[in-house]
Amino acid sequence: MSVTTSITLSNLELTRFFFAITSLLISAHFFGYFFHKFKLPKVIGEIFGGFLLGPTVLGHFFPNIHIWLFNAFAEEGKLISIIYWFGLILLMFVSGFEIQKKFSREDKKIIWAVILGATVIPLFAGWIAPYVYDFSPYLGTENNMLALKIVVAVAVAVTSIPVISKIFIDLNVINSNFAKVLLAAATVQDIILWIALAIATGLVSATAMSFLGVMTAVLVTIAFFVLALTLMPKIIKLGNTFKYNLLIKSSVAGYVLFICFLFSALASILNVNIVFGAFLAGIVIGLMPNEKFEKEKSQIKEIGLAFFIPVYFAVVGLKIDLIRHFDLGFFLWFLLFSSAFEMSGTMMAAKIIKKDWLSSFNLGVAMNTRGGPGIVLATVVFDLGIINEKFFVTLVLAAIVTSLAAGYWFKYVLSRGWDLLKVTR
Fold first, then answer.
1. Of 324, 313, 342, the residue nearest 400 (C-alpha)
2. Disulfide check for 264: which of 5, 85, 274, 390 has CB 3.0–4.6 Å away?
3. Cα–Cα dist 219/404, whole Å
4. CB neighbours of 89 closer than 8 A, spacing ≥ 6?
């Protein structure tokens, strides 16, 4: 007979937990606001806030305080981990239902060119990278090289819709043709890469790396994706009007969250990463009629951005240990390698359809912005044991550097009065 145990905390443990959460929340919001005031991505400020509380700064100069807050407990750590995962799931859920879904007919040619150039070429480069560079020192505890190869391929190609959108909003170009084309291309690319990541995370649960096991993981992931976007919207629309749907009658916001967690639970049962499940749930909610769930989507986003998502990014910063896990040579190599192939692939595709060099370079810089998805990728694969701490730090820092570079570059382009995307007729 099994006995169900629950987390019970003493007064001291509760005190440490609330001090830890309060420290992370205040630091994340303070530096997020500070970075935003200087026209920098808010998410980087939130990570920086957690970084200051981590082993590199607080842990180095005031080790006793750092240990008391974050390392001196076990049960409280589980609670922080739960909040961290709630933040990650809500981040992907919000990203899913805010994703752009309509493509302009006039811009279809450039959209598909950018998708191909920014996805196929970097994915291929990332896939062959482990054959020319030894990645074995960066393997995680699962010691799964196939999963690592997929992760490297995704890491080279990943683009951040939230960060690049925020940059465009700050620069007042979010409604420009350049922004619409770029976000449409990044939307399709995101879906492709999240499918690839879901396959990689599914592989680590396999007991034997047989061809059948690999193909099963691939087919289950693709089947989950197809059914989620074809069958589930119809089921949810039917459920919305179901007479005995007491949940939607009691709380529409609760019903929307139920859909998010249901998709995550189904993904977990199928050995598909729960992050992918939350992302698909967001897309499905976004497919509902425009007037449906708008208020609830805003409420969930507001709560997520107020608490769970900043804490998630602060915990990401908290995990960065530059003293023990920063490999400068590997970081510089990966940053240059991934940026070179992402940008050159995008620029090559843009030039094929006869775009000028500046427009092609602007598209390349934008697609090389890794931001939030690059950080989500790092945290998911690190937590699953696909990569180790050194690779985790490299991926997070690469996301930060490319996001900062994109912000500064587009600010410079606009200050010079140059066109982001020259229209050719």
1. 313
2. 274
3. 37
4. 260, 261, 264, 274, 275, 278
Q: Which residues contact 394 (CB under 8 A, 6 or more apart)?
A: 138, 327, 330, 331, 334, 335
* 102-292+326-415 classified as CATH 1.20.1530.20: yes
In the block, tokens 């709630």 appear at 86
Extents of the domains making up the chain: 102-292+326-415
Q: Which helix (H) or strand (E) holds 344?
A: helix 328-352
pLDDT band at 3 (very low <50, low <70, confident <90, very high): very low
Rounded to an integer, the average pLDDT of 192-209 is 71
pLDDT per position as a tens digit, 362-384: 999 999 988 777 888 888 889 88
Average pLDDT over residues 185-195: 79
In the three-class reduction of DSSP (H, G, I as helix; E, B as strand; rest coil), residue 122 is classed as helix
Say how far residue 262 (Cα) sits from the centre of its chain. Answer: 20
pTM equals 0.78
Print burial letters for 352-368: b (CB count within 10 Å at least 16), e (below 16).
Answer: eeebeeebbbbbbbbbb
